[in-house]
Description:
The structure is a homodimer. Helix content of chain A is 37%, strand content 15%. Chain A is an alpha/beta fold. Chain A has an 8-stranded parallel beta barrel, surrounded by 5 helices. In chain A, strands 1-2 form a two-stranded antiparallel ribbon. At the A-B interface, helix 2, helix 4, helix 7, helix 8 and helix 9 of A face helix 2, helix 4, helix 7, helix 8 and helix 9 of B.
Amino acid sequence: MGLDYRVRCCPDGLITDRRRVVEVLDCTIRDGGCTNAWQFQDDLVRRTFRALAGAGVDVMEIGYQTSPGVFEAGSVGPWRYCREDDLLRVVDPDVKGPMRLSCMLDMGRVEASDLRPASDSVIDVLRVATYAHDIEDAIRLCEAALELGYEAHCNVMAVTRCTPHEVDAFLERLRTSPVTNIAVVDSFGAMYPHQLRYLIRKYKNWLRPDQKVGVHLHNNQQTAFANAIAAIDEGADIIDASVFGMGRGAGNVPLELLLMYLDDERHDVRPVLDLIDDYMELRDELKWGYQVPYAITGWLNRHPRSAIRRMRLDTPAGMAFYDELTADRPRRRHHKPEREPT
Amino acid sequence: MGLDYRVRCCPDGLITDRRRVVEVLDCTIRDGGCTNAWQFQDDLVRRTFRALAGAGVDVMEIGYQTSPGVFEAGSVGPWRYCREDDLLRVVDPDVKGPMRLSCMLDMGRVEASDLRPASDSVIDVLRVATYAHDIEDAIRLCEAALELGYEAHCNVMAVTRCTPHEVDAFLERLRTSPVTNIAVVDSFGAMYPHQLRYLIRKYKNWLRPDQKVGVHLHNNQQTAFANAIAAIDEGADIIDASVFGMGRGAGNVPLELLLMYLDDERHDVRPVLDLIDDYMELRDELKWGYQVPYAITGWLNRHPRSAIRRMRLDTPAGMAFYDELTADRPRRRHHKPEREPT
């Protein structure tokens, strides 16, 4: 094992190590918006923007861009569309510094013809979220974004549902594309660190040296932050995180943990810690984070939607949910006590 | 990398691997008791006992044994003492099966002369919790436990505060002792997986082949479960966990995640999932689990007591807590926006 692994025990016993320098992308408003239909108040988005800029976060993903009419009027907040006038209400160029702003594009929910040129926008990065089977269309959308002057990323979702052959196929397609950043996306929170290590190595081996590898991780099995550590260690270049892990279901890598871990002098965790106080009320209301139903769908490598529905019930009843989702699995032949547990 | 690391992508994309077979020790009542002064109702302890036996958990740690008068009368519940008549109210021998019962012994809080013989008790295992500097007394207490007919474990706490020399010294002492199980204890939730891997290898290299290595992990930085995975992978023999991670501060490895991960036919996660419903009310009241102050003490490799005090305030104010604990660290020289974030 290399130098970076060496444990240095300081005189006071503190275990410290050097970290690789990586980029940090905050997706609080974009992915966190999945929990409140992107109905954040302008003031909270503004404070988030300022805190992230102050923290030296590299990229803030402020929402999605979406073609007009895709959602019923009033069903989603402004950060599902990120119209330029909405963005201008919260983006203060005096505070922005080197932080780039990103929007996500959902395949099928936005037409390339609805994108505006980068020169007319405060947005710097467009990230295309796609399933493997839509990779051709996704690359075309990335190409359109590049032509409009954006940095273009491609996030291939749900890679844990792909066969190795399917992964090879989309990586080969991306390798010969002009896309500059490709993320390993653990949509279902299904991965353990050694599995993510395998995929990071695969992506890095397959792609060109000038193509950066990112990770977007979910916390269904409480592995998101540890998976981020494993990814950094394997050479990932850009790590997604969010304030207090805010995100759909079990949420994401907590930004505060990532910044403390990186301990990079380009970053400052303090504005993020301050910002968390602003989010705690939302947390009590929206309740993202670890829960048994999310753990079960993560473990089973399934979309969390059934778990999210379950968590809206008064009694999520984890065992019944487990039974429902594992009806086709052989029952464990475990030690049977003489009487059944009650 | 060896066979255990090989990712098998099944036709449906599910990533699965084989796991090493390890022992699982549940410490819900013992460590969870730190959150409610061991004031569990008999009925909940009884249901926990039955569920753990039904789940095929290897060891249930049901509390501490403590010499009379150590705590003020009425200040702690029965599971801080584990008198035999208290145990007999909840332990049903018809249900117990091969599950062993354990009690922890805190150095300085119990005299060897107050221990009863194993033949007069339902308890099978005594685990001595000690700091490195008390190792001689701890080994003497383990020897007394062995003479009384118990299995004797030694948990050296707060190893992340020890220098490498101190670790070598207590391992050498344990190697020449009759203690059969030694646990790596991340008391402060300070460890990242690669650091735990280093310590597991160190313990396993140093100790005799017949001495088993365990891990007791805390979740301050959301690494407890991932650390357990790393420990299993490095050859740990026995893993501590608790129901929904119940434990002091940020809590422990969630038992349900561990059992699903191990996917061992000796175990059955279903009674544990059912039991979690019984614990959710306690969870809402006692609020163990991830919070910013716990993350900060974990990151700083400090005892969580200041964070636990902080969490009792109405406004934990993470940034102020961070400033308080890092007053002696150099401030990060990060990108400064032209105006300070508000």
